[in-house]
């Protein structure tokens, strides 16, 4: 296994780890976590895929590059792009939660070589900004505004309401103590993540231009607003398929790691085969 912090685009350190052989899969974690969160998925693969992991800015060993006045998701995308360039060649890009939104930003920017894209429950509020989707968009807004207010009041576990919004009541309390502590410690970074997400426009026209083989995954027990956003992504991205994992909620990469691993591996090998087939 290779493990080190690399320097990306002159903006500081970026976590980089890799193990295994085969097609390269770059795995982007969500908020309040590091690349280590992918270990159960990687373990389920054995060594059949070359797994490259990182951490988003502000987490793990990756330096923050955003500010409250400039939370652009482009800074997140730049960090992931530096990892992709370090991995070399065309990679399969996979992102969970906010990492899925960053992966989508990378695909839309089209500055690095991607073989496929997989998005696991991205908080894609931009696709909900239309009158018929207003109840789902409002669900995100109401939660995040209450969360931000609790953080401003210095409530140490304000992040609990965000975690429970995603995973259901009791999700935060069920996490190991060290995981809860890390989430609390990185709450300010997570609030920047939400600013980045709300600032990221997603139009049907832009999404239709993503012609990569794309997999969108959701859990059938996840928050309805999160599910709806991802259903819309799967419909608006040019070449996408949707998969739902039964009995799973937002934190499925740990609770249903085997099923997530199987879906990603199938998607990766399908994309590899497609790339070998001459265009008609």
Question: Could you explain the architecture of this structure?
Answer:
This protein has 280 residues and is an alpha/beta fold. The chain has a single domain (2-276), classed as Alpha/Beta hydrolase fold, catalytic domain (Rossmann fold, 3-Layer(aba) Sandwich), CATH 3.40.50.1820. Helices cover 46% and strands 17% of the residues. The protein is built from 12 helices and 8 strands. The protein has an 8-stranded mixed beta sheet with strand order 1-2-4-3-5-6-7-8, with helices on both faces. Helix 1 packs across helix 12, helix 2 packs across helix 3 and helix 4 packs across helix 10. 50% of the residues are buried.
Domain tally: 1
- Round the mean pLDDT to the nearest integer and report it: 94
Q: What's the CATH topology label?
A: Rossmann fold
User: Any low-confidence stretches, pLDDT <50, length ≥5?
Assistant: none
CATH class: Alpha Beta
Radius of gyration, taken over Cα atoms and rounded to an integer in Å: 17 Å
Taking the alpha carbons of the first and last residues, their distance comes to 40 Å
Strand order of the largest sheet: 1-2-4-3-5-6-7-8
* Contiguous helical run count: 12
**What is the correct CATH architecture?**
3-Layer(aba) Sandwich
The helix-strand sequence is: EEEHEHEHEHHHHHHEHEHH
CATH superfamily: Alpha/Beta hydrolase fold, catalytic domain
């Amino acid at each position: 296994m290779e493990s080190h912090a690399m320097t990306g685009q002159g903006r500081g350190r970026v976590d980089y780890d890799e193990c295994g052989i085969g097609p390269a899969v770059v795995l982007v974690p969500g908020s309040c976590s590091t690349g280590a969160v992918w270990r159960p998925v990687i373990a389920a693969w054995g060594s059949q895929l070359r797994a490259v992991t990182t951490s988003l800015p502000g987490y793990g060993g990756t330096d923050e590059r955003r500010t409250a006045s400039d939370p652009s998701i482009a800074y997140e995308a730049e960090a992931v792009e530096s990892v992709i360039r370090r991995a070399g060649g065309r990679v399969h890009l996979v992102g969970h939660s906010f990492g899925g939104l960053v992966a989508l930003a990378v695909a839309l920017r089209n500055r690095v070589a991607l073989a496929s894209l997989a998005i696991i429950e991205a908080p894609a509020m931009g696709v909900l900004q239309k009158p018929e989707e207003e109840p789902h968009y409002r669900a995100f807004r109401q939660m995040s505004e209450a969360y931000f207010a609790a953080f401003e009041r210095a409530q140490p576990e304000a992040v609990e309401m965000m975690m429970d919004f995603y995973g259901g009541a009791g999700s935060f309390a069920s996490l190991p103590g060290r995981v809860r502590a890390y989430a609390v410690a990185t709450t300010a970074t997570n609030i920047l993540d939400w600013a980045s997400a709300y600032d990221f426009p997603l139009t049907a026209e832009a999404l239709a231009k993503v012609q990569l083989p794309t997999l969108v995954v959701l859990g059938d027990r996840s928050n309805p607003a999160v599910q709806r956003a991802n259903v819309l992504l799967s419909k608006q991205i040019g070449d996408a398929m949707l998969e739902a994992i039964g009995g799973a909620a937002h934190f499925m990469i740990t609770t249903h790691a085997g099923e997530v691993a199987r879906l990603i591996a199938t998607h990766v090998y399908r994309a590899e085969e497609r790339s070998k087939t001459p265009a008609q």
